[in-house]
Design a protein that fits this description.
four-stranded mixed beta sheet, alpha/beta, single chain, 23 strands, binds shikimate-3-phosphate
């Protein structure tokens, strides 16, 4: 089983400083914005992972060149109207929901049909959530089962602005509609439940005609036609979603301390920090600064002897949406019962994650009670695993793989976790960093 990893012992007693790879959301957005820019854009610390490379391959199919030299990525944009739409073009978004959904907003002005395909996991995910609003702009779609990939899009050069209510808290849908709105004459009005706002911050940095009014639970966003995008040089900060695995590993281990350098701590992404602090984990932010509108800092975390259970307020869900699997491991060691609710979006990810989170916990001997969108986790501060656990057939969801590895390293037992290659989509250096902490 060359593609599986065996772990038979926990790690404790480490004191290290690490760097994790570049932020995936910002990396994909940098590729897409740069592909529309007038001129040459350069990025340092771009995440070199399958999801981002799929974005590079996608813009190449649209006639946009790029190269990678001396740790620097360069994209040669040809302006907002610079894509070349060949007939019978097929674009493969592979495993990436972000790429698939955002790209549809960018190519909404194509008069040629474009086919969008993805891998097995992406082909099970909901694309109706984005074809619906894009149809209102004037695009035409055909989707498999009216909902899934493969789909074909036929856009229009005469798009009308729309009013759009985004009520799931999906940054992918919000961003795709922002991209589409940039191609219309007139103003598009978006009312969006709070979600990650990297697209809006990039628009602001690039001085594009977008304005945001922040209300308590929603943002009101107005977008007007974009005529020109300036080249975008970006030094991409590290990903808090990748950092999350090592924050939790440190919190659950004994006598350890970790510093993670240069992490993006955009407040729309730091739900995990708020949740873990409520559970009693000691986390400190150091060297806080702002870079192109994004907040960045080093994160310092220590082992926690006592972990409190949590009744997690659903308002924190969107800011921690990619971290719940790893947060569930902390709840497994908490003193008491933790409750997480209104998590239906978790089953819309690369795998049905609420289900997989519960499966991992149950394999570990943790009692859970779940509904289709909530879970109660009965924590056990003395948890020590002594049995064999095999994790496989989980649609190669990278976060299921990494969560299982962290569980093995934190609670012991004899683990065999399949589909190691899944980490290539978001965090190819994950296992290297695990080894760095072991030595
Ligand atoms: C992302 C948005 C989130 C997140 C995904 C990345 C983005 O998805 O889960 O990993 O970069 O916009 P949703 O928009 O579907 O919530």
């Amino acid at each position: 089983m060359p593609n599986s990893v065996k772990i038979t012992s926990r790690i404790d007693n480490f004191k290290k400083t690490i760097r994790v790879s570049g932020d995936k959301s910002i990396s994909i957005r940098w590729v897409l914005f740069s592909s529309l820019a007038n001129g040459v854009s350069k990025a340092k610390n771009l995440l070199i992972s399958e999801d981002v490379l799929a974005a590079i391959r996608a813009i190449k199919k649209l006639g946009i060149k790029s190269n990678f030299k001396e740790n620097q990525f360069t994209i040669y944009g040809k302006g907002i109207e610079g894509y070349k739409y060949k007939k019978n073009l097929t674009i493969n978004a592979e495993n990436s929901g972000t790429l698939g959904r955002l790209l549809l907003g960018l190519i909404i002005n194509t008069n040629n049909k474009i086919k969008l395909i993805g891998d097995k996991s992406l082909s099970k995910r909901d694309f109706k959530r984005i074809s619906d609003p894009l149809t209102k702009f004037g695009a035409k779609f055909k989707l498999k089962n009216k909902k899934n990939l493969p789909l074909t899009i036929k856009g229009s050069s005469n798009l009308t602005p729309i009013k759009y209510l985004e009520s799931r808290g999906s940054a992918q849908c919000k961003s795709s509609v922002i991209f589409a709105a940039m191609r219309t004459n007139g103003t598009t009005y978006i009312k969006a439940k709070k979600s990650r706002n990297h697209t809006e911050l990039l628009c602001k940095h690039l001085k594009l005609p977008l304005s945001v009014k922040s209300k308590k639970n929603y943002d009101e966003i107005n977008v007007k036609k974009v005529k020109l995008i300036k080249p975008l040089n970006y030094n991409i900060p590290s990903d808090i979603s990748s950092s999350a695995f090592f924050i939790v590993l440190t919190a659950l281990s004994n006598h350890s301390e970790l510093i993670i350098k240069n992490v993006n701590i955009n407040p729309s992404r730091t739900g995990i920090i708020t949740i873990l602090k409520k559970m009693g984990i000691k986390i400190v932010m150091k060297n806080m600064r702002t870079y192109k509108g994004e907040k960045i800092s080093d994160i310092k975390v220590k082992s926690s002897k006592i972990i409190k259970s949590i009744n997690c307020p659903p308002r924190l869900n969107s800011g921690a949406i990619d971290e719940f699997l790893i947060i569930f491991l902390v709840a497994a060691k908490a003193n008491g019962i933790s409750k997480f609710s209104k998590l239906s979006e978790l089953n819309q990810k690369e795998s049905p994650r609420l289900k997989w989170g519960e499966y991992i916990l149950n394999q570990m001997g943790i009692k859970t009670i779940s509904t289709k969108d909530s879970i109660k986790i009965f924590g056990n501060p003395k948890l020590k695993i002594e049995k064999k656990i095999i994790i496989k057939n989980y649609l190669k969801d990278h976060r299921v793989f990494m969560t299982s590895i962290i569980a093995a390293l934190s609670f012991g037992g004899d683990w065999e976790v399949h589909d190691k290659d899944s980490i290539k989509t978001s965090f190819p250096s994950f296992l290297k960093i695990v080894n760095q902490l072991k030595n």
